[in-house]
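Hi support team,

I'm filing this because I wasn't sure whether my run with adenosine-5'-triphosphate finished correctly. The job status page said complete, but I'd like someone to confirm that the output block is well-formed before I use it downstream. Pasting the exact inputs I used:
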Amino acid sequence: MTESSAAPVASPTIKIQVSGLKKAYGDNEVLKGIDVDIANGEVVCVIGPSGSGKSTFLRCLNKLEDITDGTVIVDGYDLTDKKVDIDKVRQHIGMVFQHFNLFPHMTALENVMLAPVQTKRATKEEARATGQRLLEQVGLGEKANAKPANLSGGQKQRVAIARALAMNPDIMLFDEATSALDPEMVGEVLQVLRDLADQGMTMVVVTHEMGFAREVSDRVIFMADGFVVEEGTPAELFGNPQQPRTQDFLKKVL
Ligand SMILES: Nc1ncnc2c1ncn2[C@@H]1O[C@H](COP(=O)(O)OP(=O)(O)OP(=O)(O)O)[C@@H](O)[C@H]1O
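And here is everything the job wrote out:
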């Protein structure tokens, strides 16, 4: 590998290029060779049965997991290149998990301000102004001074989304962001995701919300047993699935 290999290498229209991605935990190979390209502004939903490798796939996209084999190129940075500064790459990527992991002793606004200030991307004043704007964007402008304990699950998740947006990412990864929520709060969080999709954010969304996948995504990927079994537009995948495994899965969940 040369020094220059740490520089961006991909086309700016392709945000994420995954080729031959394998991930094993010991002898257990949970990703068995995934090939996916995701374009700028594309919204991709990843669906599939429990244990099929969806979260592991997502976590490989910002190297929360070490990649066993294959390549993952994000915003032109090859994550398998040891010279690539992963913290720098992660500044392009916002990630939202099932559990919100907010700091309980900080207000909603302080949680949102934290990363830009800590990484010196913004002064405190700038981060405060941006944080307030982002809380308003997710419908929580009036909750800026509330501590997480005084917010509902859906509100906490919306703070977590605002926190991810505070680093001004150009890719957002959502790992079952609504799975821990009471049903009545799912809609308010999905609405924030819809708004982000409308604004042209590149998004990869691991979800069990088939209605959301159907309505919002540009492309749906169906995974099973560590493989991409089938992918297509929502109309193709939900309306006319080709693979028996996809058909069986959709029969169960729709
Ligand atoms: N840190 C880990 N160590 C060992 N095995 C793991 C680890 N993380 C995940 N696995 C295994 O990898 C497989 C895929 O898990 P993953 O969480 O990616 O599936 P998933 O499709 O997201 O499932 P779900 O829909 O239930 O969240 C599972 O068999 C799981 O037990």
